[in-house]
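Researcher: Structure for this, please.
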Amino acid sequence: LTTVPLGIAPTLAGTIRNAYNSAANQIADLDLLATRFGDFGKGNIKKAKCSPDAFIQMALQVAFYKQRGFFVQTYESASARLYRDGRTETIRSCSQESCDFVRTFLNYNGD
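Model: Predicted structure, token format:
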């Protein structure tokens, strides 16, 4: 880490240092396990007339709700490449309809 003199007040420098240390600790505490899923792919999802992205978004919502028991706003960035500099926009995939889907999916008993 290289220190660059910016003329920051000592209290602000301390706040920045604390934020940096907090982020570093959270990064060091992160465990990640990736598993390759090979049972089916996007072709099967498209044949079912579903967007692969929508499929994954709903799978994430099902998994989170099953683990935590509540819904949270979900952030997904979307490219707005038709606009100048290709900026991104936000997609919020958690809606009343998606919550209803998750509850129905988890309560489905195969009938």
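Researcher: Any notable elements?
Model: The mean pLDDT is 87. The chain has four helices and two strands.
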